[in-house]
Amino acid sequence: MGKKKLTEEDFYAQQVIRVQQDGKDYIYGLVRRKYSDDDIEQKGPGEYIGIDRKESYPKITDNDPASDTYTERIEDTNAGPTGVKLIYKDEFNAKNIARYRKMTGITSYGQTELIYRFRQINITADKAEEFWTVPQDDVYNTYVLKQQVVKVETNKSNNRRSNAKTS
Question: What predicted TM-score, i.e. pTM, was given to this entire model?
Answer without folding.
Answer: 0.74
